[in-house]
Amino acid sequence: DGSSPLRILPPADYSGPLDVPVTVNASNPFNQNSTDLVTVQLTVAPITDGVTIAGSGSGSEDQVGGIPITIGLTERDVDGSETIDTVALTLHQGATLVGFRAAGVTGTGAASGTTSNRTPAHVAGLPVHPFANLHGTITVDVTTTSHDGTAMSRSDTVSFAITVAAVADAPTVQVPLAALSGTEDSAIQLGGLRGAQALSVA
Prior knowledge:
This protein has strands at residues 16-27, 33-44, 51-60, 67-75, 82-91, 96-97, 106-107, 112-116, 127-129, 136-148, 154-165, 172-173, 193-194. By secondary structure, it is mainly beta. It is rod-shaped and about 125 Å long.
């Protein structure tokens, strides 16, 4: 009877023009009926849904070539209308990122940098170099900006940890060792031995 507004629910994540066919039936007290078919043209404005970000990485202390990291970027908008504009990586704990420029990424090539109009493949497998003798965890921040058509851009940030396993370093020995002397039943200090881990002498 026209007293209640009609509501249209567009398909999930759809934006753009939408034609909705509407059939109108009318009748009068004399049981006379008429039917009319009209098309209602709607415009569905886009909204940027953003990016789902995942990251991981693990390796060993002073690993040759660095520790490769895996970064997954998935657009939440399922119809493919969104674009990832930039991907920024920031490393903590003094780590540096190797291969930024080789991957076509603009930025410092060191602690942080930003891709410009790049696909997620450009941030896959980039090796991270911890500073010497670091073991434990390194925090990596990943920030993306994306947009859907004329909609406002959206920024998403996720942090993940890289696990760096400890490796025993070889001690440094000064040769020849200094002449040593001491007294009976007393500990004698050995000079010329240095190392970050516990040392044993045989």
